[in-house]
Amino acid sequence: MAKGAPTRARTVARILDAAEELFGDNGFHATSIEDICRHAGVSRSALYANFPGKDEVFLGLFDRHAAAMVTSIERATEDVSSFPEMVGAILGVLSEVSVDERRWALLSTEFSVYAARNTAAAAMLNDRDRTLRSQFRNILGRIGSEPSDEGVALFVRGAVALYEGAMLQSAVEGADDLPVLLLSQYARFAADRLFASDGGVIEVSR
């Protein structure tokens, strides 16, 4: 590894940590590049050496969050042997409620609304969504016969949309059980309709 690589990695981590805290406290739009630099203790040139702009800082957070989620799902599905178990384990990870997850859901929703009006941001976000769907497909494919592309796309899009909506509503209502209740119902639908399951009972793992 090049000598400067660890230093750069630490700088990127500081920028992302600062942005995550500020975006969570104040929102994406209310946080400036200057705010992030000040909070991270880095210069503007250091930030721009790693991120072209604020959109890319958010997308760096998206990548970090997605990688952590995929790792959690891979661990949760290591020993499953059927699609009902697989879907239940995946949705169990998505249904975990914490302050950090609520903050992320709020930030992700804010950026999605912004991307709906910004074609460049939408393109970058869609690229990452496609990568995430591919990772989900690889996980689901470990069971044996792979589900169809259409089934995976519907499952992932539905799960993410329901997850974000449930987390947002949970933040408003303070109802920690809402995500798992909604995702439990979605798990049954996913197995019965999307993956043509063998009829096994799905339980969302927690």
TrEMBL record:
Claim: Transcription is one of the keywords in the record: yes
Ranges annotated as DNA-binding: 32-51
Keyword Transcription regulation appears in the UniProt entry: yes
Stored InterPro entries: BetI_C (IPR039538), Homeodomain-like_sf (IPR009057), HTH-type_TetR-like_transc_reg (IPR050109), HTH_TetR (IPR001647)
Classification via PROSITE patterns: HTH_TETR_2
Domain of life per record: Bacteria
GO BP annotation list: negative regulation of DNA-templated transcription
Pfam families to which the protein is assigned, alphabetical: TetR_C_6, TetR_N
Signal peptide: none
Residue ranges occupied by any HTH tetR-type domain in the UniProt entry: 9-69
Keywords tagged on the record: DNA-binding, Repressor, Transcription, Transcription regulation
Protein name per UniProt: Putative TetR family transcriptional regulator
Species this protein is from: Gordonia effusa NBRC 100432
